[in-house]
Amino acid sequence: NLVLDSFGTCFDTLLEYFAGVLCFACDPQWHAKVFLDKYGGRVLHLRVHDSSNEELWQSCRAFAGAADDLLARLADSALVKAVRGRFEDRRSFTS
């Protein structure tokens, strides 16, 4: 199964990415790495270098393609159409 085979690399990279995000809490210069609301009391966005985003995408590209293919096959499946239960939304994992 291509989805399961490609998931590991993507998941590992996501864990590294979020570990880096958690490091903001201990960084004394954290305010230079975020965008705050106009009152300065709430973080709206993190400043993330483009290379980090590119590395994450490269690690998850195969998984996203496999997820796209799986969703297309499921959409065409007569068996899936006969099931009355809710199908989990997987669009966040596709390209």
List keywords for this structure.
two-stranded antiparallel ribbon; 95 residues; mainly alpha; single chain
What does this structure look like?
The structure is a single chain. This protein is mostly helical. The protein is built from three helices and two strands; from the N terminus they run αββαα. It has a two-stranded antiparallel sheet with strand order 1-2. A hairpin with a 6-residue loop joins strand 1 and strand 2 (43-46). Helix 1 packs antiparallel against helix 2. The longest helix has 27 residues, at 50-76.
> What is the overall pLDDT average?
83
Major beta sheet, strand line-up? 1-2
- Biggest sheet architecture: 2 strands, antiparallel
Task: Classify the beta-strand content into a percent band.
Answer: 5-15%
| Secondary-structure class | mainly alpha
What helical percentage do the residues reach? 55-70%
Give me the Rg, rounded. Answer: 18 Å
| Poorly predicted parts | none
Question: Concise description?
Answer:
It contains three helices and two strands; from the N terminus they run αββαα. It is mostly helical and 95 residues long. Helix 1 packs antiparallel against helix 2 (50-76).
Q: What is the fold's blueprint, element by element?
A:
Blueprint: H1 2-23, E1 34-36, E2 43-46, H2 50-76, H3 78-82
Antiparallel strand pairs: 1-2
Helix pairs in contact: 1-2
